[in-house]
Amino acid sequence: MFEAFELSERYRKVLAIVVEDYIRHAEPVGSRTVSKRLKPPLSPATIRNIMADLEELGFLTQPHVSAGRIPTEEGFRYYVENLLEAEPLPESTKERLEEAFESEEIEDLSELLKIASRLLAQVTGFPAVVSGPRLGNERLLKIDFVPLGRGLVLVVAVTEAGLVVNRLLRVPSHVSPKALERLAEYLNYRLPRLTLEQAREELLKEIEAERKFLENLFEELEEEKPPAEPIVEGLSKLLELPEFKDVEKLKEILRAFEEKNIFLKIIERCLGGQGVQILIGAETGLGSPRNISAVVSPYFRAKSPLGGLAVIGPIRMDYSKVVPVVDYTAQLLSHLLDKLTPRT
After folding, report:
1. Are 188 and 155 in contact (CB under 8 A)?
2. Where is the Heat-inducible transcription repressor HrcA C-terminal domain (predicted)?
3. Which residues pair with residue 152 across a beta bridge?
């Protein structure tokens, strides 16, 4: 976003100090605080001029005339893209994450995702959201048809990750239970290792007589209605943050968390990318509150994105610490999904 705009080294150092001090203390930062940390030192007058210039450029703002300055969304964005140095994840934290996954009796995908969400909230100190896999990205393992009468069939699909999806489908009157049984046998012979899109292309080439039925079948399986609710952990962490001491601001963020689909949309926007992505303020699309950021990463099975996980926190969250935790948790989750034996 700011590739074409380059600050001088002095301006970059002052901006970094203001952002990092605000992350730590959640209070406006004055020139005296900057002068204590700046190496090599500059005169107070020079620092005040630099901070005034950064404010004019839109990177800092002054909440009150007599107060210091705080970073704007643009200031945080410049910091994240140009100045942020993510800290290496401590070995103790890696071991904590690995041991937590290994100590649980993980029998299916939902348990694994709950563990990931809980760990992210515990380690980062912010609420965490983990979305379930999207069926369209998953490889199918098995499919069954259960005739219910009156032209209705229950479709039961099982994916390699152990996800079980049920859909009601209306079938033409000429499709008999025996035909459905034969079709299930054929599909189970052809489906393994194919995604929905691959299966659609292969099967529609070969089975023209059942074309309409198959189109309806795969459209129903792909349609995400309603989407699986994301797993949210750590909402109580908000009570410990100074941003939400104000009751009205706390109500705003809690209302946002009640609309869980909002966070699904945030995660889905980032599924096409590789690695961790950071959405700051208005970039999250939340509208209100504006002082919220999201650190998001997809997780994978067999190199295909299944879902995503996110840490949601104040715009001043310590990105250098949160980014490596989200990244490593996504890697662990992807590794475990590759090993997870599907239940059929």
Report:
1. no
2. 111-323
3. 149, 170
Q: What's the per-residue H, E or C state across the chain?
A: CCCCCCCCHHHHHHHHHHHHHHHHHCCCECHHHHHHHCCCCCCHHHHHHHHHHHHHCCCEECCCCCCCEEECHHHHHHHHHHHCCCCCCCHHHHHHHHHHHHHCCCCCHHHHHHHHHHHHHHHHCCCEEECCCCHHHCEEEEEEEEEEECCEEEEEEEECCCCEEEEEEECCCCCCHHHHHHHHHHHHHHCCCCEHHHHHHHHHHHCHHHHHHHHHHHHHHHCCCCCCCCEEECHHHHHHCHHHCCHHHHHHHHHHHHCHHHHHHHHHHCCCCCCCEEEEHHHHCCCCCCCEEEEEEEEEECCEEEEEEEEEEECCCCHHHHHHHHHHHHHHHHHHHHHCCCCC
What are the structural domains, with CATH classification, of the chain?
A: 9-83 (1.10.10.10), 91-133+228-339 (3.30.450.40), 135-222 (3.30.390.60)
Contact between 72 and 59 under an 8 Å Cβ cutoff? The reply is yes
Of 5-19, 43-57, 88-102, 278-292, the one with minimum mean pLDDT is: 278-292
Which of the four pLDDT bands, split at 50, 70 and 90, describes residue 135? low
